[in-house]
Amino acid sequence: MKKSRTKGQKSGYNAYQILHKSIQYCNNYRVLIVCSAILCLVGVAVSVSVPILTSQIILRITDGLMQQVILTALVVLLLNLFENSMRLVRTLLFHKLQYGTLFGLQQALVRETLKMEVSEIDKNGTGKIIERLTSDADKISSIFADYAFWLIYLISNIGVVFAVLVLSREMFILSIIIATACFWVSDIRIKNMNKVRKTLKVSRDERSSMAIEIVRGIRDIKTLNAGDAIARNVGKKIRESADYEDKIRKIGRRFQMIEYSTYNISEFVFLAAGCALCSNNMLTIPAFIIAYNYLNRIRDLFYGVARIAESNKEISLSGNRIFEIVEDHTYRKEHFGTMKIDRLEGDILFKHVSFSYSKKPIIKDLNMHIAPNEKVAIVGKSGSGKTTIMNLITRIYDIDSGDILIDGISTRDLDRNSLRNNISVVTQQPYIFNYSVKDNLLLAKPSAKMSEIREACRLAHIDDYIMSLPKKYNTILGEGGVILSGGQKQRLAIARALLMKTKIILFDEATSALDNKTQSEIQDAINELKGGYTLIIVAHRLSTIIDSDKIFVIEEGRLIDSGTHYELLRDCSLYRSLYNKDAKK
Length: 585
Fold this sequence. Notes:
elongated; alpha/beta; Rossmann fold; 10 strands; disordered N terminus
């Protein structure tokens, strides 16, 4: 059965929760945090001391105590040199935490993406996944650097606040009021920008999906001469994203003017208040000069708080998008049983199986039995549900009701490795990765020896071709196996399946797109497997499955007949019609 999800369930983590969750993906993160915290405490002690000592230097200059000025300045110099060293070490620790987290988080994203139900990826598109894996993960990583910079900056300026408080309580209160006003303006800007950022993220997801489709479909685009139409469609999405980015910049520019004006007004108010206090002998002139010099640093202190608040908004947005995948809140994941089986023999039974896709019924009350070592075929019109049956056996999709048993065990009870390590699949368009020939084959069995690899390739009638390549089995095949023909991809996929040495092999229209000569070669490779494996073949070309032990005829998701080729020719009108149509081609 499909596992249900709580409607509207969201991650909803705040920035600090996301940071806490994210850094746990970094190795030795506890050691790094403890060391960083100790160095930050040291920085606090230095930052409190230096501004107070600096204010004392100014006061002693006005009093003419030059010897004390030199001694105090020497102490300040030593403290600053020490703090510079500590700042460097803190920064290195933060960066190690940053990149360790990025690496661990991206690995987790890849792992969890591979666990997602295929229907979720079909429904949401690849752009959402790619943006989370790259843009959102990078954003969290870069925010670590932001936090590092601003935390260190805030720590180094805490002493300024204490220095002004020591000099004048009135100027301290006024400084805090001014800094709070500046922070309030920045906070409004951040909230306005964040609203647009949410929409921008969605637009970028869609833009990435379109870019991926262009790369994947470049050959069809060229042969259809559809470049102009595609460019217009993508251009609209690029323009939409650019408009949102421009809107964010406009908000920034508008509030920049307001922030600068607030700074200018606050400086005038501070000067006027200082003059008034000096006139009433409530503030000395040296203290006024020191407080005025520190005003910008106090404002920057609050600006740093605003920047951290902005980082919090960004990390909350990106982090929740990531943990939607990592923590299973929004996207459905595959769920397997716990039973472990080393080897399945290939007795497959469908019991009243029904399945729907996007609420549309595809398979309806299907009952079907395949005995071990049988070669069976599944035939029917396009869209009748043949490929879906293959996907249900491997649990690419989960059934709605009924049960599928292999060797008497429900596929829902088997763990992932027990099920999928015991079934090999060769599809109509097998995906060949941008690896070497050898590495493509090792995906099926990482521990395979070279002798095993070559034997599988010989059985699949591809070894001679591979050995003719410049680097033989070390030849890089290009993205999607671009240097291979359709038949060569099929044969490599068959070799990959044979290398797994499973007793169950599924062929999903493996020869439908090939020419007659290549089809015959692939068919020879399949025939050599007969009798030693449970072979299930989905085929449009019925001439390729005449010798099957049993043929199942599917119509609109229902099994309407089964038997040998000659039995079905005699008894099943749909099969007879499909065969006669194929024979005329």
